[in-house]
Specification:
- The chain has 10 helices and 7 strands.
- The strands form 2 sheets. The chain has a 5-stranded mixed sheet with strand order 2-4-5-7-6. It has a two-stranded antiparallel ribbon with strand order 1-3.
- Helices cover about 65% and strands about 10% of the residues.
- The longest helix has about 70 residues.
- A hairpin with a 2-residue loop joins strand 4 and strand 5.
């Protein structure tokens, strides 16, 4: 049904574009824009449904495979015990343990209950005299069935409650982080937006009274604030690519020299007067990564040093090889990071002071927390520490090789 809706919207949009796109004004073109937005929403919903069904199918396959392996494993162990020993008192216990494992590791009640029923059949058929005949009126079979069903239902119930509690805890943590992010965004966006509004209002209302130099100064301030907002939006777009703990980034082998050149080129365009000392291996090195996200991480580190490392005279970007890992470091010799926020800097939720009067801004909390999420999505961790001689160093590592399937 969703697929038919998407196809219908595509057809309507194509018809309206061909019929009215070149002949009408913008006010008559709004229905097409609305349909395009609706199409985007429908498409995203369709993609989510497909992904959810694929995940459920994979989960179902994993649960079935695990249940089959445990059941036949318990059956094989009991056959081995019957062959090596004369006692068969362990047979029901091993099947009960198998039912317990299946109920504990699978999702829902079905797998545990089915395994309990099959275990009763197996005990009655292969491990109860007379062998290889079914007799459900034996007291031991009835008692084993009751015990296994109780174990299956109680374990599945307990497992479901634990998973529900974990989901609730994860959702509450997401809500807390989302609230912290929104508070940080509202705090960090208020100053540049106010500055842009004030400067543009002054230019409009007092254009004739301002000299050319004053007008250029106000336009420069608007440009600077706009560039800062662009960096903030880039960080927020990076957040949208990081979907919690289940994110899977697409890694492709990237040549280290090309990555560093791209980062330095983008950085020099924004900060032409800031020199960056680079130190990378002379050997050819390729690293599997999402190059766009890793560039965002390195640019955030470099720009944070420019904005926040007061008294900095040296900014260094280095990459070293340690076994099968490439270690990235961005170091400065500025004022360092206050000890009270050093442990919370990657969460983006430490308490910030009020916005300064001079209009300076601080988006370090958001930028660094985005960096931590990106590096975690690459299967690694990020670290920060103050240098003994002054300044701070940010460090993370990426695995080398040709693994592009993450």
């Amino acid at each position: 049904m969703c697929l038919l809706s998407v196809a219908l919207l595509v057809s309507i949009i194509a018809f309206l574009r061909c019929r009215f796109g070149k002949e009408t004004g913008m006010e008559q073109y709004y229905p097409v824009l609305y349909l395009e937005a609706l199409l985007l929403v429908k498409y995203n919903g369709f993609v989510k449904i497909i992904r959810r069904s694929i995940m459920k199918h994979q989960q179902r396959q994993e649960d079935i495979l695990f249940s089959v392996c445990v059941f036949f494993g318990a059956f094989a162990i009991n056959l081995l015990i019957r062959k090596l020993f004369t006692t068969q008192t362990l047979v029901p216990m091993i099947f009960v343990f198998g039912v317990f494992l299946i109920s504990l590791k699978t999702h829902g009640y079905c797998y545990g209950i089915v395994s309990a029923v099959l275990s009763v059949f197996a005990v009655n058929f292969a491990f109860t005299y007379p062998y290889y005949t079914l007799d459900f009126f034996v007291e031991e079979s009835i008692l084993s069935a009751i015990i296994m069903l109780v174990v299956a239902v109680s374990t599945s119930t307990l497992n479901s409650r634990i998973r529900d509690q974990e989901n609730l805890r994860a959702e509450s943590e997401k809500e807390r982080m989302r609230g912290n992010l929104l508070r940080a965004i509202s705090h960090d966006l208020r100053t540049p937006l106010t500055s842009i509004y004030g400067s543009s209002s002054t230019l409009i209302s007092k254009k004739d009274a301002l000299s050319e130099e004053q007008q250029l100064k106000l336009l420069g301030e608007i440009q600077e604030d706009s560039e800062w907002l662009i960096r903030m939006v880039e960080n927020l777009l990076a957040v949208t690519r990081i979907d919690g703990a289940k994110v899977k980034v697409v890694k492709t082998p990237i040549v280290l020299d090309e990555l560093i050149d791209s980062v330095l080129m983008k950085f020099s365009k924004k900060h032409p007067n800031q020199k960056v000392i680079t130190q990378i291996p002379a050997d050819f090195v390729d690293i599997p990564m999402d190059s766009i996200l890793i560039e965002q991480v390195l640019l955030n580190f470099l720009e944070n040093a420019v904005f926040h490392a007061k008294g900095m005279t040296e900014l260094k970007l280095s990459v070293s090889l340690a076994g099968d890992k490439a270690v990235f470091e961005v170091a400065d010799n500025g004022c360092g990071i206050p000890e009270e926020i050093l442990d919370k800097i990657f969460t983006g939720c430490y308490k910030k002071s009020a916005a300064p009067i001079d209009g300076t801004r601080s988006n370090m909390g958001i930028g660094i927390s985005v960096c931590a999420a990106i590096i975690k999505a690459h299967g690694s961790e990020i670290f920060v520490e103050n240098r003994k001689g002054g300044g701070a160093v940010f460090r993370f590592s990426l695995a080398r090789g040709c693994d592009d399937e993450q």
